[in-house]
Structures are given as C-alpha cells and as structure tokens.
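Much of what follows relies on a compact textual record of a protein's fold. With that in mind, consider the following protein and its fold in token form.
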Amino acid sequence: MAKVVRDTYLIFLRYLRPTLRNRMVLVFGAVQPLVYLVLFGPLLTEVFGGARSWRVFVPGILVQLVLFGAGFAGFALIADLRSGVAERLRVTPVSRVALLLGRVLRDVLLLAVQALMLVAAGLLLGLRAPVAGVLVGLALVTGLAVAIASLSYVLAMSTGREDAFAPLLSTVTLPLMLLSGILLPMDLAPGWLEAVSWANPFRYVVDATRAAFAGDYATATVGWGAAVTVALVVVSVALGTRRFRAENA
C-alpha cells in the first residue's frame, strides 16, 4: 500500500507539472460551462425566480463540467500511447494501479479548481447557497469526476485512437447529459421522459447536488446521490485498475 501511495504521488506530479506550466488549461476547461452560466442562467430567473434559479442551474453546470472535462481525459492517454510515453512507463517498477490513480488525481484537481471558479461566478450572478451545501455538492461532483475519468481511460485504452474514441464519447455523454436534468430539472419533463431519466445514474447526482445547494442535507435525495456516486467510483476505479494491469502485464 505504501508503494502504491508513493507511486501514485509521483505519477500525479508527473502529469501535474505540465498543467501548472500552462495555466490557460484551467481557464479554457471552464469556458463552455461559464458560457452556459452567463448566457443561459439568467433565462431561468424568469422560470424559477431569483436565487432559486441559480441553486437549480449551478449544480447542473458543475455536473456538466465534470461530465465533459473528465470524459475527455482519455485523449491524453491516447496521445501517450501513440508517442511511446505509456510504453516507457510500463518498463519502470512503478505500481500499475498508480498509473491510473495518479492521472485521475491530476484530472480531479484540475476539475475541482474549475468547479470553484464556476461557483465563484455563480455567486457574482446571484447564487445564494449555504457553505455546507456548496461543500457537499462539490464533494459529490468530485467523486463523480473520479468515476468518469477512470471510465474515460478504460474507453481510451479500448479504442486506442482519437477517431474512434471521440464519436464513442459523444454518443455516450450527450444522452447522459440531457437525461440527467443538467439544464432543467427532469420533473419538468413529460412522464415517459422522466421515467427514462431514472435509469441515468447522473440524475441522482444532479438532484442531490441541487438539494445540497438548497440546504436540504438530511433527505433521501442526497442519500441516493451519495450512494450512486460511491458505487460509480468503486466500479469505475475497479474497471480502470483491471484494465491498466492487463495492459501493463
């Protein structure tokens, strides 16, 4: 275990340093969610009214940030596979589990900084939420980031090429985004569409994050969201670990 922790930290630093040298990565990653926040968010004030609209919209935008930001993490791995970087790491004594966890931690840290930027922008636009609720919501989306980044690396290794990975990613993420209620709560949808959305695990995370931002902590909604997030993390990290071990055997 000590070796895994040490190796994870080393891999984390290896991928963090280029990010720190190019700080614009932090900004560009949050541009699309920020555009939604600024240009679409004010429209909801006419639907939900005032601060409540931001408590509905900002949590959804945070999940969108994670869904696309962590989902695209696999592109970096494909580049490493093509350039031979991944092959060079395979011949080192570094833990194979750390090859996954170090990358994922870098991705999660990057997304956490971007999430804080979006929350700060939301506060400027009119978001009013309890600090504890914001922290609970950020914890949920951070766990979701771990799960999605791990699955993204699994898909990247399975496809091995950008031209195969990109359409597969788009095909998966777009319906997941729409059925999670990121832009508008799914309880506004027709009955059949809302019923379908319950099969989407991201809906539970979105609903739980919104409940947390509203200050409703001790509710079944938050409990289900937390449970689904933990399950996604366990399953995705297990799949990612298995795949990395198989690839580096």
Notes: The two ends are 19 Å apart (CA to CA). The chain is about 80% helix and 0% strand.
